[in-house]
Amino acid sequence: MDKNYVVTKSNYFIMNSNYDLSLEEQKIILTLASMVRKDDEEFKPYKFKINSFMELVGVEDKSKYTEIPKITLKLMKKVFEIHEGKKLIQTAWLSGAVYEKGTGYVELTFSPYLKPYMLQLGEKFTQYKLANILSMKSKYSPRIYEILKCNEFKEQKYIEIEIDDLRKLLKAEKIYPMYNDFKRKIIIQTQKELKKLTDIDFEFEEIKTGRKITSLKFYIKPNKSKISIKSPSFPTTANDEVSATTTELEENPKETEIIKQVQAIFYKHEISEREAKAIFKDSKSNTDLIKQCYDYTLSKNKIDNIVGYVRTLVKEFNGPKGSIKKNTFNNFEQRTYNFDDLEKRLRGIDKEIITENEDYEQLKIQDMLKELRL
Fold it and tell me: Structure pTM?
């Protein structure tokens, strides 16, 4: 179990399922989810060390080892609902738990009904590091964090949720029936925890119908004080805006972690460590820019040299600044480009694009790219 593991869920699942789990149960499920690779075809049995498991659920006395099977048994009985079109799916989180005496491990397996929401995810999914939720104290904080995280890159930079809908998502229909209590005990408490512990922060606005507060508008923003725990940014959809948070090399001195981040961004291609380092250097340590360029490249026809193509794009973006315009591809202050025209110009010579052993400045592609500068 590693706090740097990444949790991956479909946005649809986050916004269309409602369940009531204790904080400890949520940490178990999210830790288990962090062990799943979104490219896996099937769920596997995932092993926890018993000691780590006890720490996760807050059991400090090792003599209470017998409490652990009770916790997983209770969790397996937690049936929840997913609404998908005309279908109502009722399922438990776990399909099984195995304890083998003397091994020091417990083995857990997700229900197969969760496969569409955690495996083989091509788009519209949310990823975040497990570290964001492990220190939370409120049972509602992980849930609200996920809801906001999957809307982080929306163009309007906010999400409006009706109070009744939010209560349903949190399974808090009967908790704190007075709005002021709901606001103080859940919303403000979560706001404090996210600001202190996670990679996002939020402000909220109360929307009234008549004199009654009927919905909340959440304004989501990066939490710069905690940006070092942020995983590579994966936008909720290929066309949503992506923030330009930069993970500087100084903030993440472990080269291996940087390589893994860049390789994770290229989730449909295998790239070498050397290629990953070269791309990271070209981007001036901006993993979000790498992700944007990679997603843009995937949206186009087949590119023979994916690494060279992305390197060309990130290097061009890091040139001198020109006029500022925000669009659905970038929301940071850079030059404005006609990407369709750029793609057409590059496609014909992408086989000639340089790899890590050549000098970009010697390429004729630079002359053509200059024509696009404003």
Answer: 0.60
